[in-house]
Design a protein that fits this description.
Elements lengths: L1 H4 L2 E4 L4 E13 L2 E12 L2 H21 L7 E3 L3 E8 L5 E18 L2 H10 L9 E4 L3 E3 L3 H26 L4 E9 L3 E4 L10 E2 L5 E14 L1
Parallel strand pairs: 10-11
Antiparallel strand pairs: 1-2, 2-12, 3-6, 3-7, 3-8, 4-6, 5-6, 9-12, 10-12
Length: 221
């Protein structure tokens, strides 16, 4: 039972018992963050910039037609890369081959289903000649701070139940809580057995499970 339900340490000489309590709860993400990127290339920096601006207008038009409010659409600054001519020997020269400009667009929204669908279909822009790449959406739970407090309280109750069971089976009576510390919070996909010593924070699953751990020390009467 101890191996399955948690770790314990019983110190008769010190009249104390140390247990690990846990609590789990299913959560559903309430915020989606999606990012896509598009780029342009040209031997002329001016032409590459002009092309990127045209593509940006098309991306904005596409997203607004799909029902995304303009205040939810954020374009990044433009990243510029200079590519130099490479000789057949593999040596770089100081002569410019072409410029590559890149820009990202990010949407943060509570309309999870809509933005998820857009993230899958937005590559249709490729048919319009836009070099567009869609990244996997990230799913967040914005009330995690409040939930952690509740989960830690439940984990502490679980630790007390385990301590009572162990102490009663040993012919002792459980006393007051002397010490407690919070373990690592794990946020994982549903039905996942993954854990990390540093904690996990899954952002790629809509449905998740949060696990809270506490280590408690009780006095033994």
């Amino acid at each position: 039972l101890i191996i399955v339900n948690g770790l314990s340490e019983f110190k008769e000489g010190n009249n104390r018992i140390i247990v690990t309590g846990s609590a789990k709860q299913k959560i559903t993400s309430d915020l989606i963050v999606w990012t896509g990127s598009f780029s342009s290339m040209s031997p002329s920096l001016k032409d590459a910039y002009t092309e990127l601006e045209v593509d940006k207008a098309k991306v904005l038009e596409y997203l607004t037609k799909e029902g995304v409010p303009t205040d939810k659409i954020v374009f990044s600054s433009i990243n510029t890369y200079t590519n130099y001519i490479i000789l057949p020997s593999g040596q770089y020269t100081s002569d410019i081959d072409y410029y590559e400009l890149n820009q990202t667009v990010t949407i943060s929204s509570e309309e999870i289903d809509k933005i998820t669908e857009i993230s899958r279909q937005v590559t249709e822009l490729i048919n319009e000649g836009i070099e567009f790449q869609s990244n996997a959406p990230q799913y967040m739970y914005t009330k995690i701070a409040d939930l952690k407090v509740t989960m830690l309280a439940e984990a502490t109750k679980d630790a007390r139940k385990r301590a009572e069971m162990i102490s009663q089976n040993a012919g002792n009576e459980l006393g007051e809580l002397k010490y407690a510390d919070m373990g690592i919070i794990q946020i994982t996909p549903l039905y996942s057995n993954e854990i990390s010593d540093y904690g996990m924070n899954d952002t790629y699953s809509l449905e998740k499970e949060i696990t809270a751990i506490v280590h408690c020390e009780f006095k033994i009467k």
